[in-house]
Specification:
This protein is an alpha/beta fold. Strand 11, helix 9 and strand 12 form a beta-alpha-beta unit.
Length: 261
């Protein structure tokens, strides 16, 4: 069974591997090495059921992931089992990203995600950064907005999916959880992971397998190698993997489990 861990001091307990759902709702403007068709409802339902069987309880989605939220809301069962993580700040409309980090837009985005996901609370809400992390935190005051929504019971924890080291450090100081990029090909944000560990804040890893590009690297098992590398950082709470393949998901869980058995 997939081992679980407390997500920093948020009070949430997550499996070490979470399922990313970009591919549930968007196949345009993504950086995967090969094109793919969006899955059918039946395929998504089967994958979610399999993920639950494997012990996965964290699902990562976003308004920028096309129809991902709506499809999850329609197909997800056993709401009590799942930790739902979505985002605010970025929308993907007619093939283009649109950003709005105002307090009004953030609240409207959270309310819309609640409707789409057919739930009365969100477990985690992350700011979907446009790359200007520090300005969003200091000038747009995105965390103040999310803190108010947390007080209203609309969400249980909040943070940022960051793109800079400085932004990651600030997110650790002012929120519950940070989502950073860390893999065998990119280690610039390692200092954020270490700082989060020191501050007892949750850390989720995105692009753990370099969006599929690790498969081009020589070696017997890029998934095992990457997870070993990532989980050697003691501040890492969990890894998000975006896959549509049951076998890939099983293999990722099996590899991760070996480090915590």
């Amino acid at each position: 069974m997939m081992p679980k861990i407390q997500l920093g001091s948020s009070g949430l307990e997550i499996a070490r591997v979470g399922l990313g759902t970009v591919k549930f709702g968007r196949n345009q403007g993504v950086k995967y090495p090969a094109p793919f068709e969006l899955p059918t409802d039946r395929e998504i339902q089967a994958l979610l059921s399999h993920a639950e069987t494997l012990g996965i309880n964290l699902l990562d989605t976003a308004p920028a992931y096309g129809t991902s939220e709506e499809r999850l809301g329609k197909l997800l069962s056993h709401r009590h089992h799942w930790i739902l993580c979505t985002k605010v700040g970025e929308d993907y409309i007619n093939g283009q990203s649109h950003f709005d980090f105002s307090a009004k837009a953030i609240q409207q985005s959270v309310e819309r995600s609640l409707r789409r996901l057919k739930t009365d609370y969100l477990d985690i809400v992350l700011v979907h950064s446009d790359g200007d992390d520090v300005r969003l935190i200091k000038e747009e005051m995105v965390f103040e907005t999310l803190a108010k929504l947390k007080q209203k019971g609309m969400l249980r924890a909040y943070g940022m999916s960051t793109k800079t080291v400085d932004g990651g450090m600030l997110a650790v100081d002012h929120s519950d959880v940070v989502m950073v990029t860390h893999n065998l090909l990119y280690t610039d944000e390692q200092s954020v992971i270490a700082y989060a560990s020191q501050k007892q804040k949750g850390v989720l890893i995105k692009k753990a397998f370099a969006s599929g590009h690790l498969e081009k690297m020589p070696g017997s098992d890029p998934v095992m190698a990457s997870l070993k590398f990532i989980f050697s950082e003691k501040g890492v709470s969990g890894v998000i993997t975006g896959t549509l393949q049951k076998t890939h998901l099983e293999h990722t869980v099996r590899c991760a489990t070996t480090f915590f058995s």
